[in-house]
Amino acid sequence: MLEEVERWLSTRSWSVTDRPLHQLTAAKRTTGSTVSVVLPALNEEETVGAIVAAVRHDLMLRVPLVDEIVVVDSGSSDRTSEVAAAAGARVVHRDDILPRLPPVPGKGEVLWRSLLVTSGDIVCFVDADLREFSSDFVTGIVGPLLTDPGVALVKAMYDRPLTVSDGSASGRTAAGQGGRVTELMARPLLNMHWPQLAGFVQPLGGEYAARRSLLERLPFPVGYGVELGMLVDALHLVGLDALAQVDVGVRRHRHQDGQALGRMSAAIYRTAQLRLARGHLVRPALTQFERGEDGFVPRTHSVDTQERPPMVELAEYRSRRVA
Predict the structure, then answer these.
(1) Strand, coil or helix: 118
(2) Percent of residues, the chain, with pLDDT higher than 70
(3) CA-CA distance, 182 to 239, in Å (whole number)?
(4) Where is pLDDT greater, at 24 or 178?
(5) Which of 218, 219, 182 is nearest to 200 (CA)?
(6) pLDDT band at residue 255, thresholds of 50, 70 and 90?
(7) Which of 216, 246, 8, 38 is nearest to 146 (CA)?
(8) Nearby residues of 241 by Cβ (< 8 Å), 6 or more positions away
(9) Whole-angstrom Cα distance, residue 40 to residue 181?
């Protein structure tokens, strides 16, 4: 298995510099492919505007690489929608997509619904909380899909520094320590159960692109398990050589606290468990503790267990494709 991973790393791992922008625009013209960029967003008014503006300026106005930027707002209480629209995105509210089906909270839910309001042959997902964003994130992961017909899904890989509080205004940066759930939960699961995927540097990263023809055939876990679930399901559906990764540099974003990471880990474990056995958890919940005035207080959270079916199974989606 190690030999297979090493072969994959040598043939399906690239740098953003391997495909210059002029090569991508030429490939786009030749193939006639269209590209949608989707930002799932919840209370990201501080960062979403700069991301949208960079993609629009660099990849729509300066060169015609991206055809649409769609921000799917999943119920923000701040000015996320207004900021995104002012920067040039088309903003769609999660609850307005497929209204016959009540939405449930979760990132995967938003990504799944985005397929109904985008039209690109290639769909590129970008998290809305990135700081110091570069449009290389988009060109890097879209590039192999435009230039290699054998590639179906591309993940971004990057350094992910962790900002640690040290009493100063900005804090101290710990290089390579940002992917805590990846290192403590996702990477061990993948290495033990799906060792073919051991070569992915950032298996849980929110920046990836895929062909619509693949995405519409995948089930979507509604919560934080969506990235792991998508990677495992894509492996079984199209094979390892249809998956790839591209180095885009450094990813900076806000970091979750330890309890939020615990809930994310539980959702990811549940997603893996479903794919291993399709069994039932005895107790699909996670209890964590916070110190109160009289000692530790338990807080119990439900674990994301729901999944949405492949989009191609929905009548609304099939009728939209025909239209």
Answers:
(1) coil
(2) 89
(3) 22
(4) 24
(5) 182
(6) low
(7) 246
(8) 8, 11, 12, 150
(9) 20
Contacts of 191 (CB under 8 A, 6+ apart): 198
Domains parsed from the chain with CATH numbers: 2-322 (3.90.550.10)
Q: Which of 60, 71, 67 is nearest to 38 (CA)?
A: 71
Q: Using CA atoms, how far apart are residues 252 and 162, in angstroms rounded to an integer? A: 8
Q: Using CA atoms, how far apart are residues 90 and 93, in angstroms rounded to an integer? A: 10
Strand 172-174 versus strand 208-211 pairing type: unpaired
Given the DSSP bridges, would you call strands 68-73 and 90-93 parallel, antiparallel or unpaired? parallel
Q: Can you read off the two tokens belonging to residue 161?
A: 């520094």
With CA atoms as reference, report the closest residue to 118 among 140, 145, 91, 86: 91
Q: What is the DSSP string of 256-289?
A: --HHHHHHHHHHHHHHHHHHHH----S--EEEEE
Q: Quote the radius of gyration of the chain (alpha carbons, Å).
A: 19
Please report which helix (H) or strand (E) contains residue 208, including its range.
strand 208-211
pLDDT class for 162, splitting at 50, 70, 90? low
Collect all residues with Cβ–Cβ distance below 8 Å to 201 and sequence separation of at least 6. 157, 158, 245, 247
Q: Residues 187, 192, 194, CA angle at the centre, nearest 5°?
A: 80
DSSP assignment string, 11-44:
HHEEEGGGS-HHHHHHHHHHHT--EEEEEEESS-
- With residues binned 3-state (H G I as helix, E B as strand, rest as coil), the percentages for the chain, rounded to 5, are 45, 25, 35
Q: Give me the sign of the Cα torsion angle 315, 316, 322, 323.
A: positive
Amino acid at 198: A
Which pTM was predicted? 0.86
Computed from CA positions of residues 7, 11, 15, 17, in that sequence, does the dihedral angle turn out positive or negative?
positive
Q: Which residues 6+ apart lie within 8 Å of 158 measured at CB?
A: 201, 202, 205, 247, 248, 249, 250, 251
How many C-beta atoms surround the C-beta of residue 134 within 10 A?
17
